[in-house]
Structure formats: C-alpha cells, structure tokens
Amino acid sequence: MDIRQLKAFIAVFEERSITAAAQRLCITQPTLSVTIRQLEEDLATTLFERLARGVAVTEDARLFYPQARQLVDQADGLLRLFRQRHHCQPLELGIEADLGAVQVATLLRAARAAIPGLLLSVVEGCAGDARLAAEELRCEDELFLPLWEETFVLALPREHPLAQRSELAMTDLHQQDWITSPQHASHQRLLAMHGEGAAGLMLAAHAGSLRLALRMVEAGYGVALLPPSLLEGNASVVGRPLSGPGLTRRLGLCYAAQALEKPALRALHDYLQAARQTEVA
C-alpha cells in the first residue's frame, strides 16, 4: 500500500465514480481500476461495489476513508515542509540584554514584514547575522543602524514618596537609596554628567545589568536610573524624568558590512532604513 493507492481510493470514495475520479487524477480508467484492485488485495477486503452508474462504498471503505485521508494529509504536509526549506530565507538575529519588550517585538514584526519566506532564528547576546543592541555595545568592526533613542528616567517603586512628583533633580536623591550598575557604561556616563551630585548618592546595591536593577527597584532596595522602555508594562514601578543633563542611549541594529551580502539581512536593513526615513520626514 502506498500514497498513490490511497489518493486513488480517496478520489473514488469522494466522487463515487471511477470515471470522475480518473479525470480528477488525470489518469485512465483502467489504470485507476487496477490501482483500486491492488489496494483491495493488500487490505484483503472489498472497498467498492461496482454499479451500472458509478460505485457504492462498503462499510470497510467508510472505516478506511478517514485513516487514508489523514495519511495523505500528513504526507502532503511533509512534502510542503521540506520543499519550503529550499525556498526560505534564513536569518539569525541576536538580542542583547536590557532591551524593552516593545522594541524586540517591533524588530521581529519588521523582519516578518520585510522578508518573504523568512526562516528566523532568535538568539540571546552577541550572536547572529545582526543583533539588536545599544550603540555602546557595537564592536569596532560593526556598522550601526539607529532605530530608537531614549532618555533614562528615575525608576521608583510606585508607593515611593517621590513618585508623586512629575520631575526630580539630583539633589532630591541625596537621601535616597541608590541602585547602580557599575559594569554598565551608563554608570560612568552618569558620574561624568552629574559630577559631585552623583558621587554623593547613597549606595544601596549593585546590579549586574539594567534589567536586574529594575528587579531590585521592584523589591524595594532603592531607586535606579533606567531606560523607560524597560519599565513599559510594569505596574509596580514608575519612571520620573531628572532635570539637568539627560542620560540617553540609542538602540539599533549592529552588523558587519559583509553581512549585508545575505539577502535576508539586506531586506531587513533596507526596510528599517526606509521606515526610519519616513518617520523623520
């Protein structure tokens, strides 16, 4: 028993006619009759009763039909799966830490819209044909396509007294517990921008990343200066702008120049660039 026989059986069962089934399968009636007879011999049963006009299905045929339909559908699905692999455009994107969920989702939607037949792989960290990252994480031999720019805000627990203020100054934070991320580039930039005002803050805790600093704010360890995109959708933390010089970061696509030779990445790059130019205009 093979797929060819199953398709022949399904056609005769649905058409209730050897003639109509043969036309549907684009084969001759004698060939179809032989195929059905071979299937009946393999199953050791009669599937159709030949009538003057068409055929009548037997109980065994009614029992066999849903199983045959399922087997043929599975076989067709396998063919589509492996044929599509030869026509797809593979792309691997790296996603660095400390990015907002909205920014990641926006990039993934853009990739889907920009690349027909996309076979996307998403990995964490510094990997892939290109990666979504802050500009400060760009390697020396990489190009950078900016997509977003955001100004850091002071992240506070929602119940914190300062959360009632619409804007804060560094002097408001001198008696507050402060969570820093010494390993993050923003920490040094903060000290350089605010000078002695930042140096006089009360240190409460260190966090290895901006995302971990947010978790510590949630837990009540203190306040932290964080990108607003990390706070989106967080009901327990609020962000308030700081007066004076603002700490900013740019997020975008990091990639090597030669990586644009890959059609999928070139399509994504051009799509993002066009979208950005439209926004600017």
From TrEMBL:
Classification of source organism: Bacteria, Pseudomonadati, Pseudomonadota, Betaproteobacteria, Neisseriales
Gene3D superfamilies, A to Z: Periplasmic binding protein-like II, Winged helix-like DNA-binding domain superfamily/Winged helix DNA-binding domain
Signal sequence, renumbered to the chain: none
Keyword vocabulary terms for this entry: Activator, DNA-binding, Transcription, Transcription regulation
UniProt key word DNA-binding: yes
GO CC field: protein-DNA complex
InterPro entries on file: LysR_HTH_N, LysR_subst-bd, WH-like_DNA-bd_sf, WH_DNA-bd_sf
Identification of the protein by name: LysR family transcriptional regulator
Molecular function GO labels: DNA binding; DNA-binding transcription factor activity
One Pfam family recorded for the sequence: HTH_1
Keyword Zinc-finger: no
Entry similarity comment: Belongs to the LysR transcriptional regulatory family.
Domain HTH lysR-type: 1-58
Source species of the chain: Aquitalea aquatica
